[in-house]
Amino acid sequence: MPRKTLAEFKIEYLQVLDENGQVDRDLEPDLADDQLLRLYRGMVRARELDQRMLKLQRQGRIGTFGPCTGQEAPSTAAALAMGDDDWFVGAFRELGGRLMRGEPLTGTLYFHNGWEEGNRLAPEVSRRMLPFTIIVASQCLHAAGLGFAAKRRGQGEAVVCFMGDGATSEGDFHEGLNFAGVWKAPVVFVSQNNQWAISVPREKQTSSRTIAQKGIAYDMPCLQVDGNDALACYVAVKEALDRARRGEGPSFIEAVTYRLLMHTTADDPRKYRTEAQEQIWWQKEPLIRFQAYLTGKGLWDEAKEEALRAELRAEVDAAVQEFEAQAPWPADLPFDHVFAEKHPSIERQHQEFLASLKEEADA
Amino acid sequence: MPKLTMVQAINLALRQEMARDERVLVMGEDVGVDGGVFRVTDGLHEEFGEDRALDTPLAESGILGAAIGMAIAGLRPVAEMQFSGFSYLMVGQWEGNATRMRSRTQGQHTCPLVVRMPYGGGVRALEHHSESRESMYATFPGGKVVIPSGPRNARALMVASIRDEDPVIFMEPKHSYRSFREEVPEEPEVMPIGKAVVERAGSDLTVVAWGAMMRPTLKAVDEVAADGVSLEVIDLLTISPLDSDTICESVKKTGRCVIVQEAPRSFGVASEIIARLNDDALLYLEAPVKRLTGYDVVTPYFGREKSYIPPVSRIVNGLRETLAF
Predict the structure, then answer these.
(1) Which of A112, A259, A289, A293 is catalytic?
(2) Would you call A339 an interface residue with chain B, using a CB distance cutoff of 8 Å?
(3) Alpha carbon of B142 to those of A96, A311, B137: distances in Å?
(4) Of the partner residues B68, B75, B166, the one whose CB lies closest to the CB of residue A141
(5) Which chain B residues are closer than 8 Å to A141 by Cβ?
(6) Using one digit for the tens of pLDDT, what is the confidence trace for A234-245?
(7) Using CB atoms, which residue from B107, B109, B241 is nearest to A346?
(8) A31-86 tens-digit pLDDT
């Protein structure tokens, strides 16, 4: 008996806006001018804060953080495509999306200066956004669970979950996609393939020809997009969200981008890659091409760019001022949030800690 | 009152809580159609449907991770680890997320969920099916660890665990699953988490035990009490947060203490209890606190497990030694 082909698969690649800002009219999403401007502003806002944080870190004014420069497009575009009731589940390089979802600029400053208060957001923001996930890929399962609950509620809510390229080697990534697949949960998984997991390059991370194809095993639509093309990212996430809301289950998107800076400020990329390699990707970064696109549409010019940059720098200045003027929060906050109710044995340690603080202050 | 096994009693708690609160669901490997390999979730699939008695893929981290998402979204998942020996794959989600979400977000997102897992030896099971690792789970702040010892308290503590606002590891002593029955009232009973129970009052010696060790401990206590001594027995019920007040108050009264633990001796719950006695009751002690425990060896296969788990004879001797000190 001849062997039969049971299934065949292909991976599509989507780019709408090329590296020079030339748009493919057939693929261009139907976004109103104010939406396009909002998307650009969101990306620039993340870039401005990111660059300021780099300076603050070098001056010892905040702790270690992982810059997002060059990776603004996927999460910002996703946030634009999402509804207010959709869940935003991030890893730790989605600053653009977080800000677009309403996280204040000060949140990330507090978080990266060692204060849990940075995770405490206005209720209308936190209600559909999870905090930073440092344990790589663990959030993929939370997204599956959130998706299960959303499906059960039946209100058309969906989940967008981000992870990096390295995360797709983790068991939790595969378990998350598998659970979401089995449950036909309304989840859009987005891998920001920035091509580096600290020092390990993409080709050492996996023998898969694309990251996108990893979703095929879980029978979900998979797509690779130019992750520095905000329009392609928007189109991909929007399509996937529409499918999710129609009850067609999860999707997986690989957004190919590049980590232009270090993994975190504690990392030195010169140990494992050259400046020349980085330069190639500085030519492809997402802001320049989007600006060219807006200019081509008659929506942007140098004066507008200058005005936007000045406005956002002033906003960042104000946030940094607010952050630095903040008096230290109560040292004993962790004791208030061990459990919903206090337990006597932990409460005794709490009192012991307060007494020790007083001794420290008196000494 | 009907006399139920622990399996039936936990099943009763799950069924009543699922009927009372539609947010509650059970999930895990084989918990749906099959009703669980020990039948703890028997009948729930028929009664509540596949969306509330979920057969999940075979992935322990996946089960807990997804339960975390569900709990954050307002559901009350009761997840089963088929055996505690398979639960280590979920420890990353437990330590990294379930126990921290409240603190991480100052209460904006929380994980009210239960992870059930049968633990302990004595049922002639294969490798990885007989360990007692409650002390490991007790080391993670932000999570609770509950171990019932009989059908009635298992039911009442399961109800409390499901209603708790924080993540609870609910360890079920599988040696006690069907080995005895107790009267369990039909109307719901709730016992507080974080509170030990004085099972028997006495004045000469305090014995602390939990889980499957309660039965042999009570047998040993009966035997030694026949010598004309008065023994107080404490059933811990909650491992973490530990109710040290009940233990210390008892030992201040009796001056002597023996702790019976199925798990290996070192770095265990018994060690922690001794540290708490050291803090709060040292000057009341008339004898060294004794640990009667498993040994610091890899849990043996069932061919030789019997004498590794503290038998009644070892407990009897330990009690007499401490009384005679």
Answers:
(1) A259
(2) yes
(3) 31, 43, 10
(4) B68
(5) 61-62, 64-66, 68-69, 93
(6) 999 999 999 999
(7) B241
(8) 999 999 999 999 999 999 999 999 999 999 999 999 999 999 999 999 999 999 99
Active-site residue (options: A272, A309, A343, A348): A272
Residue B253 and residue B201: Cα distance in Å, rounded?
11
Q: Do B106 and A337 touch (CB under 8 A)?
A: yes
CB–CB contact A120 B70 (8 Å):
no
- Read off the pLDDT band of A119 (50, 70, 90): very high
With an 8 Å Cβ cutoff, are B59 and A117 in contact? no
Q: What is the 3-state secondary structure (H, E, C) of chain A?
A: CCCCCCCCCCCEEECCECCCCCECCCCCCCCCHHHHHHHHHHHHHHHHHHHHHHHHHHCCCCCCCCCCCCCHHHHHHHHHHCCCCCEEECCCCCHHHHHHCCCCHHHHHHHHCCCHHHHCCCHHHHCCECCCCCCCCHHHHHHHHHHHHHHHHCCCCCEEEEEECHHHHCHHHHHHHHHHHHHCCCEEEEEEECCEECCEEHHHHCCCCCCHHHHHHHCCCEEEEECCCHHHHHHHHHHHHHHHHCCCCCEEEEEECCCCCCCCCCCCHHHCCCHHHHHHHHCCCHHHHHHHHHHHCCCCCHHHHHHHHHHHHHHHHHHHHHHHHCCCCCCCHHHHCCCCCCCHHHHHHHHHHHHHHHHHHHC
**Is B59 in Cβ contact with A179 (below 8 Å)?**
yes
Nearest to B103 among A121, A182, A337 (CB): A337
pLDDT digits (tens, 9 = 90+) for A145-193: 999 999 999 999 999 999 999 999 999 999 999 999 999 999 999 999 9
Please name the residue ranges forming H helices in chain B.
6-20, 44-48, 60-72, 91-93, 101-104, 134-138, 151-163, 214-225, 244-254, 269-280, 312-324
Cβ of A131 within 8 Å of Cβ of B74? The answer is no
Contact B109 A126 (CB under 8 A): yes
Name residues 146-205 of chain A within 8 A of B (Cβ).
Answer: 146-150, 152, 171-172, 175-176, 178-179, 182
Indicate if the pLDDT at residue A362 is higher than 90.
yes
Give mean pLDDT, residues A95-108. 97
CB B37 within 8 A of CB B30: yes
Q: Tell me the average pLDDT across A103-132.
A: 96
Q: What is the ipTM of this complex?
A: 0.96
Other Cβ atoms less than 10 A from the Cβ of B126: the count is 10
What confidence score (pLDDT) does residue A60 get?
96
Tell me, what's the pLDDT at B1?
A: 83
Q: Which ranges of chain B have pLDDT less than 50?
A: none
Query: Mind telling me how many Å the CA of A304 is from chain B's nearest CA?
Result: 38
State yes or no: is A40 an active-site residue.
Answer: no
Q: How many CB pairs under 8 A join A and B?
A: 138
Q: What is the pLDDT of residue B119?
A: 97
Cα–Cα distance for residue pair A41/A29, rounded to 1 Å: 18
How far is B16 from B33, CA to CA, in rounded Å? 19
**What would the mean pLDDT of A81-100 be, rounded to a whole number?**
98
Question: Is B220 strand, coil or helix?
Answer: helix
Contact A311, A97 (CB under 8 A): no
CA distance B59 to chain A (A): 7
Q: Is the pLDDT of residue A300 over 90?
A: yes
User: How far apart are the two ends of chain A, measured CA to CA in Å?
Assistant: 88
C-alpha A217/C-alpha B219 separation (Å) is: 55
Q: Which chain B residues are Cβ-neighbours of A119 within 8 angstroms? A: 104-106, 108
Parallel, antiparallel or unpaired: strands B24-28 and B53-55? parallel
